[in-house]
Amino acid sequence: MAVNGRSTAPVPTLPSHADPDTDRVLDSGLLHELSYAFGGPFHFLLPHRFDANLAAFRTALSDAGVEGRVYYAKKANKAAVWMERCAAHKAGVDVASVGELREALGHGVRGENIVVTGPAKSDELLRLALLQGCLVAVDALDELDLLITLALTGAVRPARLLLRRLPPAQPHSRFGLNAAEVETALDRCVRAGDAVRMEGFSFHLSGYATQPRAELASELVDLCLKARVLGLQADRISIGGGFAVDYSPADHWHTFLADQRPEHYHASKTFQSGDFYPYHSPVAGADALRTVLDTVPEGGHESLAARLKETGTLLMMEPGRALLDGAGASVFRVQGVKDRDGYQILTVDGTSLSLSEQWFNSEYLPDPQLVTPTGRPTGDEPHPACVGGASCLESDMVTWRKIPFPARPRIGDLLVYPNTAGYQMDSNESPFHDLPLPPKVVLDRLGDRPRWRLDRRPAC
Which positions fall inside the Orn/DAP/Arg decarboxylase 2 N-terminal domain (predicted)? Predict the structure, then answer.
């Protein structure tokens, strides 16, 4: 049933947490100027939020009395500004390709502060890592053999490496070494002598649960102790990423999951609630690290933090999304409005490739904010609208869900998707239809007159 072209059925909403920094940008008037200047969608970045998130992780380590290193997982966002911040704060970077490694080096991140991950690394990537003194997370025995060979044939320094452990709880993962392969790898490291410096072990677990992460970390500590008996350095472990971001308050998230139905989506699109990212997480970011450190592994008598201190084991982690929490948003201009029975179909000047959750047959759920040329509208009456991309594909929906906007969106209005820096902005972006890739704008100062610049990338 519809009244005056609008549905009378309640449409679920999912507001994000209040964010004064993003609100200042939305209310500054800058976004319409940038939309006009670029003639298409763009992303804005807030580097001071990255700095604050990095500091929070480091504080969690310090408060626990644990020696640790934080490495930014570069795949979470391609912007060069994050490399600038890592170099400025002497933080590490996790890379998985020659291009990522060159960019990190080109922005001043020292090779010793870079860890190279990913499967089946190329000869070129391993050679460059060796030359720059990077730490290599070895994923397979043939990769270990190649690294040792490269180190024995003209390398100026030992190959620094971690052995990546296949999580026993995720035996079907294509990444990592099983127990027997770890035994073989340790023997080969011993036989390689001074050509390698085996510094420890790593893993990456799918999901965001803290208890399994602490359990496996404790097992890696045991492996380090075993490797030390063999004469290997083995003084550090990496627990990877998997630190959740809390996008929305608990009550809104649980209400949304309970209320959402196919009729709330364009074309009655259906999603399984389990396919959605957990947009509310009671333990997120640096607090999740604190929980991991405080956890007593099953069958143990002391916390993971105590075990790390007792054994002199350094803790590494490679968060991406969690370091980018609150560090940016994505902006689209409405260029078409079409009325349907009880809702509107908005067409924006970009595509769903700039919100990468579609990659996972899911949807980025936090509500976009409507910004008109005169500011953000308010109102009690919802105006539901879904959001389509500018391509000719039916599946190019930026948001399948009918968003209850506080006013009817019009051509020229902006839609601002909040908190998209982590894994949303550019993982899937493509110049489809010869549309240019959305530029990234770095905001170095907020307030009434924000200072902005285009993100810089070195020539490759």
Answer: 55-251
